Amino acid sequence: MHLTNKLLDYQENAVEKLKKVKVGALFMEQGTGKTITALELCRLRLEAGKVTHILWLCPCSTKQNLKDELIKQSP
Fold first, then answer.
1. What is the 3-state secondary structure (H, E, C) of 55-72?
2. Quick check: 64 and 35 in contact, CB under 8 A?
3. In a domain, 50, yes or no
4. Structural domain contains residue 1
5. Dihedral sign from CA coordinates of 58, 60, 62, 68
6. Residues with Cβ < 8 Å from 10, sequence gap 6 or more?
7. Smallest Cα–Cα separation from 26: which of 36, 6, 75?
8. pTM for this predicted structure
9. Hey, CA dihedral for 66, 68, 69, 74, is it positive or negative?
10. Distance (Å, rounded) from C-alpha 57 to C-alpha 39?
11. What is the rounded CA–CA span in Å between residue 33 and residue 3?
């Protein structure tokens, strides 16, 4: 399974740094692709069998946008 869109270089760099740690954060500006970067991290961990569930926390005001992005980016 792969995401719909390809990650940009800086998003790939963030995934490379964060995929090796258990806890991390994405301090990226609005509109720079935090959602797809986080989805790629989730995808890698799901496929490796390291997690079975994902809990995504976000402000209520961003729930619909997040839902739309999840549907758009995930196969």
1. CCCCCHHHHHHHHHHHHH
2. no
3. yes
4. no
5. positive
6. 32
7. 36
8. 0.87
9. positive
10. 13
11. 13
Place of tokens 């739309």: 68
Residue 3 falls inside a structural domain: no
Query: Number of folded domains in the chain?
Result: 1
Q: Which residue has the tokens 């995504």?
A: 56
Read off the pLDDT of residues 3-29 as tens digits, 9 standing for 90 and up: 999 999 999 999 999 999 989 999 999
Instruction: For 22-73, write each residue's pLDDT tens digit.
Output: 899 999 998 999 999 999 999 999 999 999 999 988 899 999 999 999 899 8
Amino acid in position 53: H
For residues 38 and 35, give the distance between their C-alpha atoms in angstroms, rounded to a whole number: 5
